[in-house]
Design goal:
It is elongated and about 60 Å long. It has about 280 residues and is of the alpha/beta class. The chain has a five-stranded parallel sheet with strand order 2-3-4-1-5, sandwiched between helices. It is about 45% helix and about 10% strand. The protein has two domains: about 150 residues, Rossmann fold (3-Layer(aba) Sandwich), CATH 3.40.50; about 110 residues.
Length: about 280
Amino acid sequence: MHHNYLNQIIKSYHENRLSHAFLIETNNQVKCFEDLKKIIKEINCEKTYKENCSHCNLCHLIDIEQLPSLEIIRLEGQLIKKEQILNLKQRFSTKPIFSKYNIYIILNSEKFNPSSANAILKFLEEPEIGVLGFFITNNKENVIDTIKSRCQIIPAFYDTNLFDFNIESIAVQYLKLIHESSDLSLQINREFFLDYVFCKEQYQLFFQTIFHIYYELYRVSINYMELTDKYNELKFLLKKNSSYFLNQLDIVKQLEEELSYNVNINLLLDRFLLETRT
């Protein structure tokens, strides 16, 4: 199921009144992005859309972000750059072949610089038939007014207590390994993540989950709550004092912020391992 508010997009599509651009404000860009990909599958489906359908390759190409008519724009450094928008325009100068629409998604859409904002504004002022744009942000008030006024605004807020079970389970096992192992080498990271191929958004959720776990351990350490059963495997960490967990929270928050830039994931994980075990 899609997020309830995002279902407005599907409803508009079926009523033939789909807007050319949407600004989605969310408190979880990772989950929002995944829900949005499902919507893109549905509005591009040539038949009646069904999840896990195997009639064509469209859904798979969207999942792996290889559909020629789908462009994902992420931060380059700390900002969205003009060159990214110009490349987008060049790619969408022709009609889509494998789907109904040319679609672009811009993550962290409050991060335009003046030249990139001006470039995307021209794209929005003269919308072409068959082109859909999705701007995702954590705070719509930080998006420039000229973009905001040309988009249909949709809220998509998620329960912050809900975490993807698989990611959470992986995070618990990872923390258990790096805290219990006597191996001080960085090879731990290489071996642990061999079984997992995360995209950037999943790594962001991974670090968000680790932050949540450390925060719960901190609250237990100062006697604010009982440890949740699902974290029992990390009970041994409660031998550490509350200042240790505060330090861990600072480390994770810093790395999570750096992850929004174009950093090397392996180097980031190695830093986390080294700083955690120092």
